[in-house]
Design a protein that fits this description.
The chain is an alpha/beta fold. It is 31% helix and 22% strand. The chain is globular, with a radius of gyration of 26 Å.
Length: 601
């Protein structure tokens, strides 16, 4: 007897849409496919169709993408993978599909007018799947073999040969969380890769920072690929604990990671299609010839240290926040922290805790602040213990978040931050009474949009803002103009006695690394990195719809940029690794929508 499963109306509607969409695609009829979308619609594609990370808007955008991509993508097998949901007139369905070279998944939102949002992502390349699950490697071949090498012997041979007698296909410069996550992905795809870093151990980027540093994002948001944090891992990871995890992860995932290695120069040979990269490894020069070069130096890689008149006269301790050793040696000292971002608040809080004689924060521009608990509530439906208990996996959470196009993401954020502002009104009132200049972004959309647009100008409050609100940490506003032997001088003439000055002045753009390592010409060819083109503060237009130059092809062949927070490093490393693997295997990768460069460094 055959059992028939009842299909909900929402699921049937989603499957009907997919079947009609597939038929239009198979017929090569981009106009018919686009007519299935609502007049206001957004299709975000992560590599599957475009070999790019791109969002198209409106039916005209759909037509353009399909006209360029249908022939080589040859999409088929569109299907709903689990029962669809329907709420407020919107059907939401998880989908899967096949392409000429791989398999993908996505998320579809349907309204009465048609598809409102469509997310399509490439999951794997046919014939080049990761060896996992039922296809996991055996680890050993049973039997007898006089030429057998043990696992340890094979790893040692690889360490000796790769970079010397054999060249890596990919060189990743920067061994922080981004480089490590990408290195793990490429390892599983069997792409010869070396990750280099100038530090002595993986995780030293975290160990070397001030003692009180911790992750301000919760653990559910911060997993690395393949190997999630244990169930008893703390919600907010202390910096040394995350450093040890990164080091253990690097070893467990068998990443070819060169420590004490500094990249000195890089040059691309257009004719040969490869880079010449000069590095210094343990003091010895090594020349590498990768075909793909990834700069994973991070948004917090190059300290932004302003030139300050009189700095040479200052008798106290002056350093950038990235070099701050911690508060212990400054007990009884007068401390001035320039800046009002995450690092500034953390350092002020730690100095106060350890008994500095006085701590003063100098706020140079308005700052967005949100309490950690309030922020947690906004991401709780996707990243929390409650979300896990409800069946929300990390992978589904990432795709759900990715399915919201950046063009309209702020419209979801504004109501959430309006609620936070009302809920925490007394808290914000005390900060403003203390003289702190608050903002919620140019359009009141809050922290995450500020992060996406400019990567600065905010603080996730884990406690130190209370010190400013109650006056334990003094607050002054203005611009630093001069240092004397023992004072900080502001533009309005304010003079602040100081034994310690910490410059929590942020970090320079990633293009500075490219300019120094490769050339200013290449950096200008690539253009500005990060930002959406929202035409808000520090994010000049025109609108680009995706993060500039991140995780996708750039105007410089063979040059890629990777990084962001742990969530982005985890999520986007998947799509960058597939782009690199396809090129290694000679799979055609015609790029749709390679963006123009509107802004130089």
């Amino acid at each position: 007897m055959t059992q028939t499963l009842e299909i909900s109306a929402a699921t049937a509607r989603a499957q009907d849409w997919l079947s009609t969409f597939q038929a239009a695609c198979e017929a090569g009829d981009a106009e018919a496919a686009a007519a299935l979308f609502a007049p206001e619609c957004f299709w975000r594609d992560l590599v599957a169709f475009s070999w790019n990370i791109v969002t198209v808007e409106g039916r005209a955008g759909v037509v353009d993408l399909l006209t360029e991509c249908l022939v080589h993508t040859a999409p088929s097998g569109f299907r709903v993978t689990e029962p669809a949901d329907e709420a407020d007139g919107v059907v939401t369905a998880w989908i899967a599909f096949d392409t000429a070279v791989g398999r993908g998944t996505g998320l579809l939102r349907l309204t009465e007018a048609g598809a409102f949002t469509l997310l399509t992502t490439l999951d794997e390349l046919t014939g080049h799947e990761e060896a996992k699950g039922s296809e996991r490697p055996k680890g050993v071949v049973h039997g007898v073999d006089r030429d057998r090498l043990t696992w340890a012997e094979r790893r040692e041979r690889e360490r000796i040969e790769l970079g010397y007698t054999q060249q890596p296909y990919v060189l990743v410069i920067g061994g922080g969380q981004g480089g490590i996550a990408l290195g793990a992905r490429l390892r599983q795809l069997d792409v010869p890769t070396i990750v280099i870093d100038k530090q002595s151990r993986p995780g030293d980027q975290w160990r070397s920072r001030y003692a009180s540093l911790c992750l301000h994002d919760p653990v559910w948001y911060d997993h690395l690929p393949y190997l999630k944090f244990p169930a008893n891992w703390p919600v907010f990871s202390p910096k040394d604990k995350i450093a040890d995890w990164l080091e253990a992860y690097t070893s467990t995932m068998e990443i070819n990671y060169w420590t004490n290695t500094e990249a000195r120069s890089a040059h691309y040979d257009e004719a040969e299609g490869e880079w010449t990269v000069e590095v210094l490894r343990d003091g010895q020069p090594v020349t590498l010839h990768p075909q793909q070069l990834v700069l994973a130096t991070g948004m917090s890689g190059r300290p932004n240290v302003p030139e300050i008149p009189g700095a040479e006269k200052f008798r106290g301790d002056l350093h950038h926040s990235s070099k701050h050793p911690g508060p212990e040696e400054y007990k009884g000292k007068r401390a001035v922290v320039i800046g009002s971002n995450n690092s500034a608040f953390d350092i002020c809080g730690a100095l106060w805790e350890k008994g500095a004689a006085s701590v003063t924060m100098v706020q140079r521009s308005s700052t967005h602040i949100v309490r950690s608990d309030s922020l947690m509530a906004t991401i709780g439906p996707l990243y929390s213990e409650e979300a896990v208990a409800a069946g929300m996996t990390t992978e589904k959470a990432d795709l759900t978040f990715a399915s919201l196009p950046y063009r309209i993401l702020h419209t979801f954020q504004i109501p959430a931050y309006d609620a936070i502002r009302e809920q925490d009104a007394e808290y914000y009132a005390r900060l403003e009474k203390a003289g702190f200049e608050l903002d919620f972004g140019d359009d009141d959309s809050g922290l995450f949009m500020k992060y996406l647009r400019r990567g600065s100008g905010y603080y996730i409050d884990v406690g130190a803002a209370e010190l400013v609100a109650n006056g334990d940490v003094a607050l002054v506003r203005g611009q630093l103009t001069e240092l004397t032997e023992d004072e900080v001088v502001l533009e309005d003439g304010t003079r602040l006695p100081a034994d310690l000055v910490v410059l929590a002045t942020g970090y320079g753009p990633m293009t500075e690394w490219a300019a120094e390592l490769i050339s200013p010409e290449v950096a200008d060819r690539v253009g500005k990195i990060w930002g959406l083109g929202s035409d808000t503060t520090k994010d000049p237009g025109p609108w680009e719809g995706e993060q500039r130059n991140m995780w996708k092809p750039t105007q410089q062949p063979g040059l890629w940029f990777h990084g962001g927070n742990l969530h982005q490093s985890r999520h986007y490393s998947q799509f960058l690794s597939l782009q690199l693997k396809a090129r290694l295997e000679g799979i055609p990768t015609p790029v749709y929508g390679l963006p123009q460069v509107h802004h130089l460094r």
